[in-house]
Structure formats: C-alpha cells, structure tokens
Design brief:
heterodimer, A: mainly alpha, B: mainly alpha, Rna Polymerase Sigma Factor, Chain: A, Arc Repressor Mutant, subunit A, 2 domains, 12 helices
Chain lengths: ~140, ~190
C-alpha cells in the first residue's frame, strides 16, 4: 500500500484541478465551449495581447555573418587558464617527487650506500656485542 | 517538397541568399521575442545578430522532424542566447544616476513602444506584462503575441503542451490581478 501525507494529497488534488481548469479554458479560448463572464475577462486579455504584436518595435539589423562570436572567446579563456595551471602542477609533481624523477635515482642510491656503511659493524664485533648483552 | 523546406536545404548547403530569406522571414519574430525579454533595442539588435550567426553555423545539423519547425528552432537558440547574455554580463550603473533619481528619470528615454503607443491601455498592458515571472511572460508572448501553438511553445521551453496550458492559464489570471491591483484597470 502507498501512504500519502494529507498535505501532499491536497497539493496533488489542487494540481489535477488546475490542469483540468487549464484544459477547459483552452477550449473556451478556441470557442469550442461557451465561456462564462469571468472567463471572458481572461479571453479579452488574451485578445489584447495579440494586438501588442503590431506595437512591438522591430529594427532588424543587416545580416552580418562575419562577426566573431564574443561568447566563444570568453568561454575558451578559463579553459585555457585551467589546463595551463594543471600542466604546471603535474610537471612540478613529477620533478619534485624522487619516485618519478630519474635524475634523483643515482643520488638516492649513493645515500643508501652511505647509511648502510655507517650502520653495519664487522662480524667479530657483532658477536662480542651479543655475548656482552647475554651476560648482562 | 514545401517552399520552406527547399529554403532550409539550400541554407544547409551554405547558400547565403537562402539563409538571408530565412532571416527576413523569421528575424522580426526573433527580434520581438528578445525585445520582450530585454526591453532594450540596442541589446536586442546585437543578440539577434548573435542568434542568426549561431543558426548559420548550426543549420547543417538542423532536422525538421526533431525540432518541429525552423521558427521553434530559432526561438530556442534566441532563448539560450538571452540566458547566456544575462549570465555573462554584469549590470552597469553609473554613480551619477545613483546619487540623484531625477537624473535617472531624465536620462531614461521612453522606448519606441511608449513613443508610438497612443493608447494608454496598451502601455499599461506592456508594464503589467513585464511584472510577470519570466516563464509566464515567455508563454504569453509566444502564445498570443507570436501566435504559436502550445505544442510549439512546449518545444521551445522544453515543457509538455499540458504544462504550457497550465502556465498560460496561471499567467492570464496573474496578469488580470496585476492590472486590478497595481493599475486599477478592471
């Protein structure tokens, strides 16, 4: 079962009623159904609107198809700025991150080697340290 | 093949004179439609140019079965052009006019509509029409001033003809209310 709120139902009924009224008015407007006095005011208003066609000024300019569209320029400008910024950002990311930059690979390898040298002890000293630690 | 369809086919092939014929035939309708949205003749002239320039570039893709008629297609382009115009342009107000309302009054020349109109009733109607919400005014202009069917108006405004009838009915009732309350008309 579908449950509808009372306010929603009221709104729907109003919408259906308005749709029906609009359909009937359309028929009255075309003269298929006789109109009431109240409708005549609206029909009269529609007729008056028709007469505005002659009153609206029309100054048609000469057709010129060689003008460049203003909108296309204003539309392309932000796209160009955005893509340029994006390109610079990507370039910066690639050069500054060691993972991506090939130039830094050698330097990293050298640094690793240096650290390993500093940390590692000869095997004999390692054993001695182990014995001392056990005796403690 | 109808005369109009022949004209469209020629224009599709890049025939400037055929396109000029279309411009002469539907230009006034596009002009009136834009004028009722902008109320400014110079802006309307520029926008009409833009509309037909866009139409000339896009006419190869025009399909009568999809669009209904060339008139509806041109009005749809006109509507989008006006929307784009108001989206991109910033309102310009001079400082002088802000300081003294009388300067603003003196500088705003009456529109040709106001100049030529001898009938007060029509002037009032024009002002009342401008007070309507955008969509309601669009429907009334297209339905009654331009004489299009609700189906054609629906195609331009991307709504069903049933929806157009409801908007039209609502708009007429609101117009009557504005005329009664603001202009003491009825």
């Amino acid at each position: 079962m579908i449950f509808i709120k009372k306010s929603m139902l009221k709104f729907l009924i109003q919408k259906i009623k308005e749709k029906k009224e609009a359909e009937i008015f359309e028929e009255k407007l075309s003269g298929k159904i006789p109109a009431s006095e109240e409708d005549w005011v609206l029909i009269n208003l529609a007729q008056k609107l028709k007469s505005l066609k002659k009153e609206t000024p029309v100054f048609l300019p000469a057709l010129n198809l060689e003008i460049e569209e203003k909108t296309s320029v204003s539309f392309l400008k932000p796209i160009f700025i955005f893509s340029a910024t994006l390109a610079i950002l990507i370039l910066f990311l690639f050069t500054s991150t060691p993972k991506f930059s090939g130039l830094n690979k050698k330097a990293i390898a050298k640094e690793k080697e240096m650290i390993e040298k500093q940390v590692s002890f000869p095997k004999k000293t390692e054993k001695k340290v182990e014995i001392i630690l056990k005796n403690l | 093949m109808l005369e109009e369809e022949k004209l469209i086919e020629k224009a599709k092939k890049g025939d400037f004179f055929a396109f000029e014929e279309i411009y002469k035939k539907y230009g006034p309708r596009v002009f009136r439609f834009i004028y009722w949205k902008t109320s400014d003749i110079e802006i309307t002239k520029d926008l009409v140019q833009e509309v037909f320039l866009k139409a000339f570039k896009k006419i190869k893709k025009f399909k009568i079965k999809k669009e209904g008629s060339i008139s509806s297609w041109l009005l749809k382009i006109a509507r989008n052009t006006v929307i784009d115009f108001y989206r991109t342009s910033k309102p310009v107000t001079s400082l002088e006019s802000l300081e003294d309302p009388m300067i603003q009054f003196a500088s705003s020349e009456p529109s040709p509509f106001e100049k030529t109109s001898q009938n007060l009733e029509k002037e009032v109607l024009e002002k009342a029409l401008k007070k309507l919400p955008e969509i309601q005014r669009e429907v009334l202009v297209l339905r009654f001033i331009e004489g299009l069917s609700s189906k054609e108006v629906g195609k331009i405004l991307k709504k069903s003809d049933g929806a157009i009838r409801i908007i039209q009915y609502r708009a007429l009732k609101k117009l009557k209310k504005i005329l009664e309350e603001d202009f003491d008309f009825y």
